């Protein structure tokens, strides 16, 4: 039966801007699977250095000479101060005033000089400005990368506002509105600071924003390999995968190995590379399915989040962060602007610990279905942004209804079956 499955989304083509993904277990009745794992690395490329890790990219990054527990205490204190101002601290969790003042003093000693001025003015701000500032501090208190708050590619928008104090109202409103589509907390802070200070952005807020921009822009990256179609890599029956991010369906890049992959702690943790703080620790855990159990496999799929088109799938022994990270890098020439996944917080960590050049401007978001169970930074919550009304981030969950038919099929028949139904 000759059917051409090489069809992209009718609107997005081969350059999708928003993608959502998920894995679903096919079941132990699927007896004839024999696929190549997407994690297979090209050893000829050697081992690349991991340039930075989770605690090197966050606002309160680990510093030489400062005890690790002290850094944890600083992040926890910043989170407490922000949440208390936002009335998010339960009454039985409120600490004595003397202890709070001690924490504030320790924070003042540790904060970057560019941030200290605005923090010292915190309790003198108007109510609305203080709330807007607290929302930003709450996000910065986590161990999420600063780039999750403002990705490098978007920094120039805020830089325009900082460089043009006498900008015309129409132009100002346009930039502020655009900023709401990627960093509404910063947009709110700018607006409330202007309203509270006679339409002049205070120097301390200007320095604070400039610091965040500089930190985001200075992220070191490992540039991706150039995209080169690899002949012989499109064979769904053999490899158990079929992606249509390009016209040929061929693989564009080989998977590279990074020094962090040899870390013994990382090898033990399939959910994360480095442990987060207690107040931001998410509860999702990946399945511990034994990959050696014959017939047990997981199907991983990518969909256009706006239009529902499926861009393809691959089969794997057990789902992990490797699946979204490596499938996009291998098959999609340019990464999308936004990715929806049920474990977006730790997917970002995995990607930036490895292919940082490819993923540096990526917005990672939890899908709506799983987002409520997460305690991490609100940077991973898409509902806070403008322009996401059309997104169906749960489409992967809705796919589960056709997977049961796999149990009595060969891998060849199942791959054809998948492509047929996904194409219709």
Overview of the structural elements:
This protein is α/β, with parallel strands linked by helices and 424 residues long. Helices cover 38% and strands 8% of the residues. α7 packs antiparallel against α8.
Q: How far is the first residue's CA from the last residue's CA?
A: 15 Å
Percent in strands: 5-15%
Number of helices: 18
Mean pLDDT: 85
Largest sheet: 6 strands, mixed
Question: Roughly how much helix do the residues carry, as a percent range?
Answer: 25-40%
Which secondary-structure class do the elements indicate?
alpha/beta
User: How large is the radius of gyration?
Assistant: 23 Å
Give the low-pLDDT segments: 287-292
- Which sequence of strands runs across the widest sheet? 3-6-5-1-7-8
- Shape designation: globular
Oligomer: single chain
Number of E-type strands: 8
Q: Helix-strand pattern, N to C?
A: EEHHHHHHHHHHHEEHEEHEHHEHHH
Q: Summary?
A:
The chain is of the alpha/beta class. The protein has 18 helices and eight strands. The chain is globular and about 65 Å long.
Topology, element by element:
Blueprint: E1 18-25, E2 47-48, H1 54-57, H2 68-85, H3 97-110, H4 113-120, H5 127-140, H6 146-149, H7 155-163, H8 169-179, H9 184-196, H10 203-217, H11 236-239, E3 241-243, E4 257-258, H12 264-268, E5 298-304, E6 310-316, H13 322-331, E7 338-340, H14 344-352, H15 356-359, E8 363-365, H16 368-371, H17 395-398, H18 411-422
Parallel strand pairs: 1-7, 2-4, 7-8
Antiparallel strand pairs: 1-5, 3-6, 5-6
Helix pairs in contact: 2-3, 2-5, 4-10, 5-9, 7-8, 7-10
